[in-house]
Amino acid sequence: VQLQASGGGVVQAGDSLRLSCAAAGVTYGSVDMGWFRQAPGSGREFVAAISRIRSGSNTYYAESVKGRFTIFRDTESTTIYLQMDSLKPEDTAVYYCAADEGRKFIPSMSSGYDYWGQGTQVTVSS
Question: In this structure, are residues 6 and 81 in contact, taking their beta carbons and an 8 Å threshold?
Fold first, then answer.
């Protein structure tokens, strides 16, 4: 399984960005997927996740992004997206996508994910 994250950039507070994570080597909707972020000097932080299709494609969000970020799955490919609206300077971080093939999905637990993308930088200026 290979994950390719893209879509990061430099924006101003209040702007929007959409991150993409293309997954190769997986069947559409067969894995749970999530987004994490890591700011300089901080640990990896859960952002959002979406469960596999047979589990209901349930979505999960960190409190800090709830109502501003939306995670969704492309209906025709193995790509997931993170739509980020009303961005704040504190959203500045490297964003990573991850995939979990395991039976028990704990969305916010980074150690439970099996595969990780390379990260894409998001910088929000005030």
Answer: no
